[in-house]
Amino acid sequence: MNDECLAIRHSEATYRLVLLHGWGADADDLMPIGKELIRLDGKNIELLSLRAPQLHPDGFGRQWYGLFPPDWSAVPSAINSLQHRLRTISTSEVPLEKTVVLGFSQGGAMALASGCELPLAGLICCSAYPHPNWTPPKELPPVALFHGKKDEIVPIQASRKIFELIKL
């Protein structure tokens, strides 16, 4: 482990699950879900939970970019940085093609925007939203969308918009 991620390494890993937390959380936030997913799957899966690079403005937790108010001008740089991090963790044993990225809320938006441009095994976007003017590429990895109907922070219409954009 280092200060950029939490990891559960597996010496015989053939797959990787990368977790991206939401605004104001930290890398440990999604670890219980990640641990349960790799336990249920039964395969040799490495688990990484990445820490967003910026401190949350309240002084605890992290953020991928400023969100309240939204700093959309910071999104391209945040996407490039995350794509670099994802490429860096790719190995010959576990390449990007065997990596699934799961993101929640702001992390889901980052997973979608960053991951659709990479040759990933898949994306899992939970309570995600598309960034303004986001357009999916013609070819993208498999995407699973999950969203609670009573989400008071990110309305379910955000996931519906993603669905409309990617189904075309």
Characterise the protein shown here:
This protein has 168 residues and is an alpha/beta fold. The strands form 2 sheets. The protein has a 6-stranded mixed β-sheet, sandwiched between helices. It has a two-stranded antiparallel ribbon with strand order 4-5. Helix 2 crosses helix 3 (106-115). Strand 2, helix 1 (31-41) and strand 3 form a beta-alpha-beta unit. The chain has 4 helices and 8 strands. The chain has helices at residues 31-41, 75-89, 106-115, 156-167; strands spanning 5-8, 15-20, 45-50, 54-55, 62-63, 99-104, 122-126, 143-146.
Work out the radius of gyration: 15 Å
Largest sheet: 6 strands, mixed
Q: What average pLDDT do the residues reach?
A: 93
- Helices and strands, in order, run as EEHEEEHEHEEH
Shape: globular
**Annotation field: number of helices:** 4
Structural class: alpha/beta
SS elements, strand count:
8
N→C terminal distance: 40 Å
Parts with pLDDT < 50 across at least 5 consecutive residues: none
Q: Fraction of residues in helices?
A: 25-40%
| Strand arrangement, major sheet | 1-3-2-6-7-8
What fraction strand? Answer: 15-25%
